[in-house]
């Protein structure tokens, strides 16, 4: 992993040689309290503060060791272990949940540690020391013993700059997607005032996937489950070589709706894949733009989630008849006027998502090569210049 570079134990690279996990019992959400970062807030090396839980100030004060200052490295240690993010200055004063460890680097940057933690060999190390008796858990002592490659400081800086350029572009794309989608939905919402209503089932066909994970071959196309809609493709993703009809395939730009479990609406932006059970492929009817159907489904989402929450089953869900309920839509003439702009916003968001996918692939290819010293930083810089 280190390409002949010296290594140091992680504990020797932390303030006071220590790391701590956060609040064990946060209690109820306190609107006037202190925001905390939970594992679900860590994604792609970033901290998503949307819907953040807030704890009473006295609870946060009892866990002063994990009160954030900005610049720390966060590491998930329970459940979805190994997720990382560097704390931005804007989160000063926040705290973290029990499932997250706070690392304050000394003599090395948090960005470097994050890259090391994302390397394949470090993930292998974590897997080897993982306690899975009840729930996947990383022990703090094992984390402190992890060996960190320590090339010269200028090399560490150069590597973090190269990978950071890709990360920064991905972050920009995340913002582009959010802005394009927010503008699109706000525009359609405004245009729907004083409009008409239509059943969801009249706007699109809702094609249910099937149990394509059964007897999966392990190769071929991704089988899209709810997990892939929520968290993307990962180690648990199922692949299958099976041939399926077009209605059960999803391609970049298609709309998917998980009608069970988390009830997620998502624009698919990855390569062609197979739609599994509990997910609708939403196919617009003639004359109904995809952006309009997406808006209509999202309009009903909160209501559908409430219906699912009332189900006395292990997994909440909606039923077909719920798709016959009316939703507000713009009048026909407004749809025609909006179509060019809304389609452009939809496609802009999709393009940003697709670009981020390629940037992430480039990043994942370069990181182990840079960490091992197999590829000089200057060569990696040329690759990055071509894609950002």
What labels describe this entry?
39% helix; globular; alpha+beta; Adenine-n6-DNA-methyltransferase TaqI, Chain A, domain 2; 388 residues; 21 strands; 10 helices; 3 domains
Characterise the protein shown here.
The radius of gyration is 23 Å and the shape is globular. Helix 5 (153-192) runs antiparallel to helix 9 (332-372), helix 5 runs parallel beside helix 10 (377-387) and helix 9 (332-372) runs antiparallel to helix 10. The longest helix is centred in the last third of the chain and has 41 residues, at 332-372. Helices cover 39% and strands 20% of the residues. The protein contains 10 helices and 21 strands. The chain has 388 residues and is an alpha+beta fold. The mean pLDDT is 94. The chain has 3 domains: 7-150, Adenine-n6-DNA-methyltransferase TaqI, Chain A, domain 2 (Alpha-Beta Complex), CATH 3.90.220.20; 151-195 and 330-388; 198-328, Adenine-n6-DNA-methyltransferase TaqI, Chain A, domain 2. The protein has a 4-stranded antiparallel beta sheet with strand order 2-10-7-8, covered by helices on one side. A 4-stranded antiparallel beta sheet has the order 13-20-17-18.
Number of strands: 21
Distance from N terminus to C terminus (CA atoms, Å) equals: 27 Å
| Share in β-strands | 15-25%
Class from helix and strand fractions: alpha+beta
As for the CATH topology of the largest domain, it is Adenine-n6-DNA-methyltransferase TaqI, Chain A, domain 2
What is the alpha-carbon Rg in Å?
A: 23 Å
The domain tally reads: 3
Looking across the biggest beta sheet, what order are the strands in?
Answer: 2-10-7-8
> In the CATH hierarchy, what is the superfamily of the largest domain?
DNA methylase specificity domains
CATH class of the largest domain: Alpha Beta
Helical run tally: 10
